# Entry
Amino acid sequence: MPLKEVRAKIEKLDIQILNLIEQRTALAKDVLEAKKAEGKLINDEDQNRVVLDRVLNAATEKGLDGESVKRVFDILIKMNIERQHELSGEGNLP
# Structure
């Protein structure tokens, strides 16, 4: 397969990944409302650990570099926490 075609496939996957990140981040509102209802803090360290352990195990099963995947999900978690802070009026304002 020519390089141009491979790169086109990668570009399509990149868009799909971005769409999934958007969907994941959009759930921040629902997560925030549920946390408020249950009296939980925005940053739930225990849940963060559960997510990171889950993706590390899944990545390992798929033959991917677990630590790299874990770093990606750490960023996604931080994005979601930041969004929850914004939605609660606690965002990082200048």
The first helix runs from residue 3 to 26. The chain has a mean pLDDT of 94.
